Amino acid sequence: MFSYRHAFHAGNHADVLKHTVLIAALQHLIEKDAALTVLDTHAGAGLYRLDGDCARTSGEATHGVARLFAPAVPALAPALQSYVELVRAFNHPGDTPRVYPGSPFIVQRLLRAHDRLKLFELHPTDLRSLAGNVAQLEAGRQLAVLHEDGFAGVRKFLPPPARRALVLCDPSYEIKSDYGKVLDFATDALARFATGAYAFWYPIIPRPEAHGLPRRLRTLANQAGRGWLHATLTVKSSRITASADGEVRRPGLPASGMFLINPPFTLKAALQAALPQMVQLLAQDRHAAHTLESSGG
Ligand code: SAM
């Protein structure tokens, strides 16, 4: 069984990017009355304690979401403001967040009663936490938790009845076969349901598969004649350094990206305003930067 636990990483810079994009995309998709199905292939535990052992051990949220709650934060771009407000809704107003909503709770908060949310989680511990957490919501038929491989399990829901869906594909990439699985999944999903909105998160790390994935997703989208958007956020250098006594220092995750196929047309403008602020607020050294590209140029 995998050892990745999102509880160590909840609220880090990668979550800020991923969840800001997720919220902005959803806000657009729920403007239409027709029912929306959201499929979360890798759901995690749903809710995380930022004052618990896992988050405190890693300290990642301190350099992520917590920075957006600092007293001197400037006026935020609308997409970042929506993200902050959504996180604040799970916490005492005015406090630095102690609870962090993962993608299941972020999505559920925004959906209407007639929308549907399917959550896939394989790890037994996170599955138990997720099931316990969502039980409090009393969401009834709106929400289902499935103990299945998300890459395979989602396919049976494509296309959904109202032919409107957002698929979030957010593996841990703990094993390098995940990169290939994402591409296979994207290929199959587009063949089943070409007009769905697909959002893929990936880490930017010194590994050929990680650099190849957005290139391959772009080729896939172009060949299928679908629009795409690619946003990346770097917060620090990826260089491995050594201390004076020769101890090797690995930087931790320096950057990540979101690749969307069939993105809402409003997303690019929302991120054009939000990404420079993410760089400003989340930078850990002078290498902090962002990129934003889309099929429209
Ligand atoms: N999407 C979550 C969020 O934004 O809050 C975080 C998900 S975390 C990066 C990845 C999760 O996928 C982990 O909880 C892991 O146990 C789970 N997982 C790993 N392989 C899986 C698979 N094949 N199918 C479903 N879940 C899987």
From TrEMBL:
UniProt catalytic activity: adenosine(2030) in 23S rRNA + S-adenosyl-L-methionine = N(6)-methyladenosine(2030) in 23S rRNA + S-adenosyl-L-homocysteine + H(+)
The EC number(s) this enzyme carries:
2.1.1.266
Q: Where does S-adenosyl-L-methionine bind?
A: 19, 42, 103, 121, 149-150, 170
Supply the enzyme class, top level: transferase
Superkingdom, according to UniProt? Answer: Bacteria
Q: Where is this site: Interaction with substrate rRNA?
A: 4
Output the SUPFAM superfamilies linked to this UniProt entry.
S-adenosyl-L-methionine-dependent methyltransferases
Q: Does the keyword Methyltransferase apply?
A: yes
Keyword list (alphabetical) reads: Methyltransferase, RNA-binding, rRNA processing, S-adenosyl-L-methionine, Transferase
Active site as annotated: 170
The cross-references to InterPro entries, in alphabetical order and at most eight, read:
RlmJ, SAM-dependent_MTases_sf
Role of this protein: Specifically methylates the adenine in position 2030 of 23S rRNA.
- According to UniProt, the name of this protein is Ribosomal RNA large subunit methyltransferase J
- What's the encoding gene here? rlmJ
